[in-house]
């Protein structure tokens, strides 16, 4: 069974340094390495990861087409590119059809950086258009630098799922970064995936184990949030939970393949 990192970020080589500086200003986080495709692939080799899902974010509506053109052009032997959408973009249906036509399995949404509310009319229209056609990786919870207002709380995410029960969604950071008590109250047990990106070392291990057990191992995806956490650290964090071999294998790759309806084979290493 392959090891699949369900949540990573990279940028085109020519803008990667500037992107890191902008994100450092917002997050005060340092990348483990400059997040380019080549550096991610080398990082995967060093960490023993077979595939990584690339999660782009369109911070402005007009960026959607160019980001998706870049995503479509990424090598796919070990990278699994997801697309970008923004609720204020004027041809969401056209971009959805483009992504599907190019074999893209999902999209990444981040209300904080994209600047929209989950209950806004344009967001509702975007979700209706996406439907169950694309798998959504949705940011959940706060940011590394605490924010005075957090849009994707577990309560608001639960309301979104209530309005759009057909969506196929993974909520990042074990349901919502720094809102794990509310995750247990409002999201655990629902028909939604949680990924483990930037969770180890942030949430208590006992709470991570409890959420995994109560939510169901089959709806948990392993992820690192590269470049903000190394894949080796994220792997060590999962293995420190001392789950069964079958549960760990499912989280490391089997659950993602089931979620997107795709089979990936382990990367042959020399």
Structural class based on helices, strands and sheet pairing: alpha/beta
In CATH, the architecture is: Alpha-Beta Barrel
Arithmetic mean pLDDT? 96
Fraction in beta strands: 5-15%
> Can you say what the CATH homologous superfamily is?
Metal-dependent hydrolases
Supply the CATH class. Answer: Alpha Beta
Largest sheet entry: 6 strands, parallel
Return the string of H and E elements.
Answer: EHHEHEEHEHHEHEHEHEHH
Distance between termini? Answer: 18 Å
- Dominant shape: globular
Radius of gyration in whole Å, from Cα? Answer: 17 Å
Strand order in the largest sheet: 4-5-6-7-8-9
Give me the number of helical elements. 11
What is the third-level CATH name, the topology?
A: TIM Barrel
Strand segment tally: 9
The low-pLDDT segments are none
At a glance:
This protein has 270 residues and is of the alpha/beta class. Helix content is 40%, strand content 11%.
């Amino acid at each position: 069974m392959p090891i699949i990192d369900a949540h990573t970020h990279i940028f085109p080589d020519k803008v990667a340094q500037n992107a890191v500086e902008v994100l450092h200003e917002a997050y005060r986080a340092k990348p483990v390495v400059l997040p380019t495709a080549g550096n991610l692939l080398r990082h995967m080799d060093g960490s023993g990861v077979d595939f990584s899902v690339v999660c782009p974010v369109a911070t402005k509506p007009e960026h959607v087409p160019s980001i998706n053109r870049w995503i479509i052009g990424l090598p796919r032997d070990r990278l699994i590119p997801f697309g970008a959408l923004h609720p204020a973009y004027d041809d969401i249906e056209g971009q959805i059809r483009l992504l599907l036509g190019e074999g893209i399995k999902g999209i990444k949404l981040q209300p904080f950086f994209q600047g929209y509310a989950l209950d806004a009319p344009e967001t509702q229209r975007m979700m209706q258009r996406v439907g169950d056609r694309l798998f959504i990786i949705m940011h959940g919870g706060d940011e590394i630098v605490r924010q005075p207002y957090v849009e994707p709380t577990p309560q608001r995410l639960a309301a979104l799922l209530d309005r759009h029960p057909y969506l196929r969604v993974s909520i990042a950071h074990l349901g919502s970064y720094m809102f794990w008590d509310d995750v247990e109250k409002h999201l655990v047990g629902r028909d939604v995936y949680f990924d483990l990106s930037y969770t180890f070392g942030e949430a208590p291990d006992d709470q991570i184990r409890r959420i995994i057990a109560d939510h169901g191992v089959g709806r948990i995806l392993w992820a690192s949030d590269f470049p903000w956490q190394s894949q080796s650290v994220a792997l060590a964090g999962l293995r420190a939970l001392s789950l069964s071999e079958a549960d760990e294998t499912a989280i490391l790759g089997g659950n993602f393949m089931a979620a997107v309806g795709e089979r990936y084979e382990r990367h042959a290493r020399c």
